[in-house]
Amino acid sequence: DVELTNEVVQKIIGAFALYISGKINKSPNNITISVGNDSRISCGRINAQVVGTLSSCGINVINCSLISTPAMFMTTLEHTLNCDAAVMITASHHPFNKNGLKFFTKSGGLESSEIEKILQLAKQGKSLTCEISGNVYNNNFIDDYSKILRDKILSACGKDKPFSGFKIIVDAGNGAGGFFADKVLKPLGADISGSQFLQPDGNFPNHIPNPENKQAMESICSAVIKNNADFGIIFDTDVDRAGAVDFDGKEINRNTLIALISAILLEEKSGAYIVTDSITSEGLTDFIQSRGGVHYRYRRGYKNVINKAIELNNEGKYCPLAIETSGHAALKENYFLDDGAYLIVRLLIKMAELKKQGKKLNYLIGDLKMPYEEAEIRLNFLCEEFKAYGQMIIEKLKEYAYINKDFIPAKENYEGIRISFAQGSGDGWLLLRLSLHDPIMPINIESNVLGGTKIIAQKLYNFLKDFNYLNISKLQEFIN
Questions:
Q1: Contacts with 393 (C-beta within 8 Å, 6 or more apart), sequence order
Q2: What average pLDDT is seen over the chain?
Q3: Interaxial angle between packed helices 255-268 and 340-356, expressed in degrees from 0 to 180 and rounded to the nearest 10
Q4: What is residue 13's three-state secondary structure?
Q5: What is the pLDDT of residue 78?
Q6: DSSP label of 376
Q7: How far is CA 188 from the centre of its chain?
């Protein structure tokens, strides 16, 4: 159990400083690291510890304070700052009383193996040392980052006020995303009246800043209808994820969001690979293929899909997009950085283009086939060695699927096992997998017919009922 006390933060950051110094082969006083945070209630305290520790290690610090996670990565690339590394203080979509640290270098977010090395150094009490303290500077880099986004839009649209005549509202959920309304949309002519929860408040008094949260999505959908807006935008706390709402109050989220950005990119270059996480729908696969693309359904975890997209490009297979149903989206043209604001910029550019043709964004995804029913059921383990036990269940289900005529296992399973069911047997699919972070086993089910998810769930229940260390009561509740 680790709490981000001042002492723990100091140890982790001291170890991070030591790791970075060795990685880039620079002495402390020649290293510059940027520090930023979202709006969480503990960010002020943790920011002070991070900045103070880095300075005491001899490192020069640029404190950006309230900012988005993607903007923090850009501090390592933007020529005026050109930082060697960046530390972002955020816990993303987690509850208000949580917090965490994200680390970046010029090549992107650190891999899990690098994080493990840093934590081992911290556990051993190792830290970078220097006789001369580093300098500390304050910088409002979110202004520079906003200009980068505005310049992208102006370059594509070719006029000073490309969003004039559009009413676009933003829901920042009191996280770090309020800048997008005031610093990106408004200067480009958009009417942003009706935008909500732009002021940072780490207690998140209105709703959780999370495009996957039902209450949050209902809030922005209602705001779009109430304000007769052309488009609605919702960000998570640190703006590395986004969701959207069409003019009619319908969500552009999960599969529809993936389909929309895929359609835009495949218009620009047919034959492209689109990498997604494992729980995307069959309708999305058909949609991407109909646009001349290749749907590469991979594992959950934004680093997983990003790394797979990079791997495909290195193999000579053009892949412009790595995206999760959670809203994490990374584009090749944007350093494969998962950036919710950049994703929205791409959608808005297309919206402005389509307006000239008398069309709206939903024109691009009018033929996307959506499931009639969908469900996610999360099962708890009743044993400590849950990973091994869960993996054993998955392997047993694979064996069972190959001998059961109703079960049609996917040809390739990169995560857990995905099984399809024909008409009359549920007309859909399920995915059984292990959670990336928690001791649970999620089940995702989709069906094209009324009652199909329960039919599929019952078939899975018949298999799982004999595993004594998996609590399947929630699956039974869903069926009943």
A1: 432, 441, 464, 467, 470
A2: 96
A3: 60
A4: helix
A5: 75
A6: E
A7: 26
